[in-house]
Amino acid sequence: MRPINQTILPMLNEFKKFILKGNVVDLSTGVIIGAAFGNIVTAFTKGIVEPLIKLASGGTDPNVTLKLWIFDVGVVINALIGFLITATVIFFVIVKPVNKLLSMMKKEEAAAPPPPTPADIALLTEIRDLLKK
After folding, report:
1. Which of 5, 12, 97, 133 has a CA between 20 and 30 Å from the CA of residue 21?
2. Beta carbons of 91 and 108 less than 8 angstroms apart
3. In angstroms, rounded to a whole number, what is the distance separating the alpha carbons of residues 102 and 117?
4. Does the predicted model carry a pTM greater than 0.70?
């Protein structure tokens, strides 16, 4: 039976490689930003489009004329601020650290020496060089 650290460490390294794949991070970030942008669309619809539709269709809401002039812009601004806060947090908490980790991993891979040439490949290379002469 293998010790626990010989079992867990390879799994953690594999999990780290999976998480740090660019497409996993991009997809998760896109889902979060998309949900936040959905709030902007909902606020715009409720605060600006719906009052216009009610007015055009002759709605009976007495507040529709007041909302037409004000357009309930506060709801839209609130959604925009929420979106900007979400995007800022995602950028500084997820995107920047992951980009830093990826650049560090690429530097480590570039700095690693090439693996030693197998004996049969070295022999074939030597034969090729002798045949060239």
Report:
1. 5
2. no
3. 28
4. no
Task: Please report, for the chain, the start and end positions of each structural domain, with discontinuous segments joined by +.
Answer: 4-132
Q: How would DSSP label each residue in the chain?
A: ---HHHHHHHHHHHHHHHHTSHHHHHHHHHHHHHHHHHHHHHHHIIIIIHHHHHHHTT---TTHHHHHHHTTHHHHHHHHHHHHHHHHHHIIIIIHHHHHHHHHHHHHHHHSPPPPPPHHHHHHHHHHHHHH-
Nearest-angstrom CA–CA distance, 97 and 92: 7
Which single residue is written with the structure tokens 């959604």? 79
Distance between CA atoms of 100 and 94, rounded to whole angstroms? Answer: 10
Residues of the chain with pLDDT under 50: 67-68
